[in-house]
Design a protein that fits this description.
- This protein is an alpha+beta fold and 194 residues long.
- Helices cover 48% and strands 24% of the residues.
- The chain has seven helices and six strands.
- It has a six-stranded mixed beta sheet, sandwiched between helices.
- The radius of gyration is 16 Å and the shape is globular.
Amino acid sequence: MAAAVLLADAMRDNPLHVQAFGADPARRRQRLFRFMEPLVRHVQSHGTLLGAYAQGELVGVLGMMKPGCCRPTGWAALRFAAVIMTSNPPVGAVRIGRWLAAWARNDPSGFHWHIGPLAVASAYRRQGVGRHLMVHCCGQMDALAAVAWLETDLAINARFYESLGFVTAQHEPVLGVPNWFMRRAPVEGGDQPA
């Protein structure tokens, strides 16, 4: 699954992932890949997974989950929990549970599309790939007159999302790492920042 590979590679060193999946980069990448596989399947079955390609290679991924579909429920939630528990040491599984609980607690109860994960392959960063994906996403949100919601653990990402009209609704540490919980109201007429 190319999207899960890209996400695991691109997000391996995010501060929250270091705290959740451990200090060893190779193990962290492997655990993150196992985490991303069911997440990608969930996004694909409950929304849209956008891809950006260069020379036939997947270089960017963006998930967009429909309202009410942010979190797996029922059997899907049990399968996801089983992946977390079997792919991580007990202390890691507990940390991941604390992380996901914090994100769920901050998830708004109102009608919204959940945006993410977003990642760009390292060789293609700072070339507009992520902006292209997000501008497309924001355009769809504007066409639907829908609120968009996302989380990030990187200040640089928070500034990037602010440039697209997101505002920080909540800022709180998760596993000791600053996290931004961000909301974007639809823009009338759909005019997007370039």
